[in-house]
Amino acid sequence: MNTDKKKAVVLLSGGLDSATVLAVARSQGFAAYCLSFGYGQRHAVELEAARRVAEAQDAARHLVLSIGLDAIGGSALTDAIAVPKAQAGTPPAPGIPVTYVPARNTIFLSYALAWAEVLGTGDIFIGVNALDYSGYPDCRPDYIQAFETMANTATKAVVQGQVRVRIHAPLIDLTKAKIIELGAGLGVDYGLTHSCYDPPAHGFACGRCDSCRLRQRGFAEAGLTDPIRYWPQ
Amino acid sequence: MNTDKKKAVVLLSGGLDSATVLAVARSQGFAAYCLSFGYGQRHAVELEAARRVAEAQDAARHLVLSIGLDAIGGSALTDAIAVPKAQAGTPPAPGIPVTYVPARNTIFLSYALAWAEVLGTGDIFIGVNALDYSGYPDCRPDYIQAFETMANTATKAVVQGQVRVRIHAPLIDLTKAKIIELGAGLGVDYGLTHSCYDPPAHGFACGRCDSCRLRQRGFAEAGLTDPIRYWPQ
After folding, report:
1. How far is A163 from chain B (nearest CA, A)?
2. Number of domains, chain B
3. Cα distance from A82 to chain B (closest Cα, Å)?
């Protein structure tokens, strides 16, 4: 690890998108300080994936915070609400699904902002994308821009002119297929990643939730083979 | 409790300012959903004060979240850094002090935004003030406005037009003395509140940290007696 590298905080869920973003950050010369959250999500197995991905991509550090969003509730990912499923190949239903978690990216980016300040950097990477994005409002360019503007009023480091906050969202305009092509070109091992909202058994993805179906369609459109294991349909 | 009342999330630290804000919210007809955080702060006794204040002011609910900011660090309030002290009556040193916690209000407001969405409201109250404010950047009007703008792009409830987020900061232009006069007029029992950054013993305030000295000056200027106990100097 070259300690002279510029630092960036990379939000790392352990999914396909954030694994790609980590590779993008490293390809741009950043030392990656990866940040993951245990927030009462059903799919806590994604934290194991985050650890694998951070290690495989030589993260400078990986911090996992427990933040108890389940006490607030309001989502199928944290509450006892069924995750919607459909046959493989079916596009997601229109509208914002019940897997939406209230203010999740705002909370995640706020912690990233705090850690970035402690690390002495303003660079934060997040793997949102506005095309194949499941309809979440906090994945849109307007939102990311508004967060960046707010962050540039919020901290001591900003007010004192030491850093300028920049929210890097390099996937925001890409389809899932393009994301996979980008990551594959950067050597991402997608076999280490985890996307399923509701895994039927350890080591298997369901293949039927929105997240699995978007992932499968992306690999198909990219003409690549998805290396993870899906539960037999 | 009249369940037809409009709801508001009130950030409640257990200090003088947030106890006053809670009274303001209730005086405006809101049912108050109080939100407090255990964030690894030295002065965790403030959570006891928050519970007392919420109960005394008939909060509709009081949610305390443990959010482990100490894992991020960067502040005398969470790390093993000495809290600055001075003789009673000394004004705070200029500049942003070491008690600054990176991105604290951004993190607190983000959770409030999440809870407000689950409760079906956009009204959030916070006790920041920009005059006697210890120099924290996330207590300024520009910051509060930028957070509100960001929040109005961030959530499902906003995007679907169900609510508009409003960050109420009714103390932002007031001196500490004016805040105390306001709260006293609304019947706030300041004997239940806690302000000290570094209490020397249970039930006592140090009288020498910035927070104690601002509080003492406020009571003196308001011509009122501070009902809490200070450690003999």
Report:
1. 13
2. 1
3. 17
A2-16, A50-64, B85-99 — which one is most confidently predicted on average?
A: A50-64
Q: Is residue B230 assigned to a domain?
A: no
Residue A99 lies in a domain: yes
B38 close contact with A: CB closer than 8 A? no
Is A67 in CB contact (< 8 Å) with chain B?
yes
Task: Please tell me the pTM assigned to this model.
Answer: 0.91
Query: What Cα–Cα distance (Å) separates residue A233 from each residue in A16, A18, A200, A202, B20?
Result: 22, 27, 11, 16, 58
pLDDT, tens digit (0-9, with 9 covering 90-100), for A101-120: 889 999 999 999 999 999 99
Q: How many CB pairs under 8 A join A and B?
A: 144
ipTM of the complex: 0.89
Q: Is B160 in contact with A96 (Cβ distance < 8 A)?
A: yes
User: Has residue A46 been placed in a domain?
Assistant: yes
For residue B193, the domain's CATH number is 3.40.50.620
The verdict on A74 touching B (C-beta cutoff 8 Å) is: yes
Decide: B177 and B222 in contact? Cβ < 8 Å: yes
A117 with B110: Cβ contact below 8 A: no
3-class DSSP string for chain A: CCCCCEEEEEECCCCHHHHHHHHHHHHCCEEEEEEEEECCCCCCHHHHHHHHHHHHCCCCEEEEEECCHHHCCCCCCCCCCCCCECCCCCCCCCCCCCCCCCCHHHHHHHHHHHHHHHHCCCEEECCCCCCCCCCCHHHCHHHHHHHHHHHHHHCHHHHCCCCCCEEECCCCCCCHHHHHHHHHHCCCCHHHCCCCCCCCCCCCECCCEHHHHHHHHHHHHHCCCCCCCECCC
Q: Are B143 and A154 an interchain contact pair (Cβ–Cβ within 8 Å)?
A: yes
pLDDT for B142 equals 94
State the smallest CA–CA distance between residue B164 and chain A in angstroms. 14
A231, part of any domain: no
- For A194, the domain range is 6-222
Contacts of B118 in chain A (CB under 8 A): 72-74, 102
